[in-house]
Design a protein that fits this description.
alpha+beta
């Protein structure tokens, strides 16, 4: 009765070894960094649906402001690069000062009476259907991005670099030995959101470099590639010594 377990364990071990000996690299468009706005829209849709009786209530205004602020920060992330920690610190400082002035003007009318009067006149509200449609459109876009990435990706193996692309599974092969890797983090915000950055691959005997933008969790990917190629080089040298 225990004999069939051995082939299953062997197959699982082979599958695990195969997954460890291959690393998949996906390059995503920048829209993936809008996921905070996507999540806030889902939460706002649920809350607005529960409290849909009075759309002019202060709760609806707060939820709408939360969505608008999150979306605005997301758009800033997509529009500009923050290559240094000092730049992101400066950005948060400006945001904090701006929010402080806005809240002070609203809750302390004598502080900045003109600004406070203007801000109190702004009462943005949206019903649950608005947030739901936004989340629905974003879901369709993310599904399209995920589907496209599965038809255009790179695979690093111990002895070769493979480029899978096209609906007919076209394949390009590059030699992996002596593969040089450069990792660049050009935006601190993007790295904080998804650990993403730019990965530049330099295959041997290739004149052009392969540039992959917005590779998620780039640090762990780079470390896995280094370990994989390093272990394969050790094995090759060991075999050659024995011969």
């Amino acid at each position: 009765m225990s004999k069939p377990a051995a082939p299953a364990a062997t197959a699982a071990a082979k599958k695990q070894e195969e997954n460890e000996n291959r690393i998949l690299l996906f390059s995503y468009p920048k829209i993936i960094f809008l996921y905070p706005s996507y999540l806030v829209a889902i939460v706002a849709a649920i809350w607005s649906f529960i409290e849909r009786a009075d759309i002019t209530s202060s709760g609806h205004v707060i939820v709408s402001w939360a969505f608008l602020i999150t979306l605005s920060i997301n758009l800033v992330v997509l529009s500009f690069d923050f290559p240094r920690t000092t730049s992101i610190t400066l950005f948060f400082l400006i945001v904090a000062v701006g929010l402080g002035l806005a809240l002070g003007s609203v809750y302390v009318p004598t502080l900045f009476p003109v600004l406070g009067s203007f801000l109190r006149s702004l009462q943005p509200t949206a019903n649950h259907m608005f947030f739901l449609l936004f989340a629905f459109v974003m879901s369709l876009i993310y599904m399209g991005v995920w589907t496209h990435s599965r038809f255009d990706y790179w695979e690093v193996r111990g002895n070769e670099l493979l480029h899978h692309h096209g609906f007919m599974s076209d394949l390009e092969r590059f030699p992996a030995p002596q593969l040089k890797i450069d990792k660049e983090v050009n935006d601190v915000f993007e790295y904080l959101l998804l650990g993403s950055g730019r990965l530049i691959l330099h295959p041997s005997n290739e004149r052009r470099a392969i540039v992959l933008e917005n590779v998620a969790f780039i640090t762990s990917k780079e470390q896995r590639i280094t370990r994989l190629l390093g272990s394969m080089e050790v094995r090759v040298r060991k075999d050659s010594d024995e011969v």
